[in-house]
Structures are given as structure tokens and as C-alpha cells.
Amino acid sequence: MLHRTRALLIRQQTMLANAFRAHLAEFGIVVAQGIRHVRALIEKVSGEDIIDLPVLARTALRPLVAQLIELRLQIKTIEKELLAWHRTSQESRRLETIPGVGFIAATAIAATVTDPSHFKSGREFSAWLGLTPRQNSSGGKDRLGRVSKMGNGYLRSLIVVGATAMIRFAREKGAVSARWINALLEKKPTCLVSVAVANKTARIAWALLVRKEAYRVPVPVAA
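^ thats the sequence. predicted structure below, dont judge the formating
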């Protein structure tokens, strides 16, 4: 319930932020996309001497600013509750040891997958998340298409976000996983690599839940 509430608040925050940015764009005030950049916009609107806005425009934007500030506080409050629960859950703390999995994703997986034995394998769990490619048969040949995106979309999005973060910092790390990611990036587009990393993360998560173990960094095999 905490995760569902947080997701709803984040959607509301995104809608308000987009409306806020669109209104200010009419006055030639443009800031890069992303919720973190909205703070700069709020400061510009709040400061009377920073930008020149009509009085009616400030009046129209003031409720949006108030709601954005309130939503941020509510989201932070929920995240504190999730962190407190995370510290009491062995499963969640084990999942956080996986590269690219923070306490938000770890608590979501632990709270949703209370019995990992419902899935026969890590691949089945990944398929349930919609991270495995569809199989299309034509002329007696099986072809793999895009990921199915079936199953739990919320967990899938959290794992993909973590995978994207791993890709972003892969070139700065010398870990085995970074070398594997960089090798994929040389052959595949970033979006496909992100899904591949997310697929692997999901399989590892299932294995840790079943074995009740923490993640161990693989030892590189000598050439």
C-alpha cells in the first residue's frame, strides 16, 4: 500500500510539474525536464525580484507550487516509512545487495513476492515481470520480438530504472558487471541493454529470495 500510494503521488507530482513548466514556458522561462529541475522554477516564481511575471500569472501558479511542495513532503514521508520497514526485513536487505537495486526496489520486490517458490525459475519470474522477449513463430521459425511488458509493471519499471543507472556508471567502474554491460553496449542499443540488465537483475533477485542469501560478486575467470 505504501508503494501504491507513493506511485500515485509521483504521478500527480509529474502532472503538476508538467503543467507548471508549460505555463512558465509561455513567458519564455524554460528549464530542462525532470522533477529536480522544478525546484529551480519554484524559486524563480517565489522570488519577486528574480523574474518578471504578471500578478495574475503568479496567482495562477501559486496553488501549483503549494501542491508540488506538499507532494514532495508526502513522498519523502512514505520513503522514510519504507526505509524503516526495509531495515527490519531480511529479504529486502538481501535484495539491496544486488547492484542497481536500492531500498525502494528491494522493499517493493520483498513485499510483492512473499513466496518465490510460486515461480519455477528466475526466467519465469522475469517473464512475469514482462522482461522476456515475445516469441513469434512464422514459417516454422521462432523469432524473438520485443519484451512482453506483461505482469507487474511497477516492479518492472523500478528494476529497469536501476538497470539504466548501472549502464550510466558502467564505464566508471572496473567490476565484472561493468565489463559485461560495456561489451553489450558495443553491440546493442542502450535501450536493449537496459532490458537485458533488468532481466538479469530479476533472475538474481529470484535466486536470492529462494536461497535466502545475499548477492556475491562473481569471481572473474582467468583467460
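Residues 159 and 198 are 6 Å apart (CA to CA).
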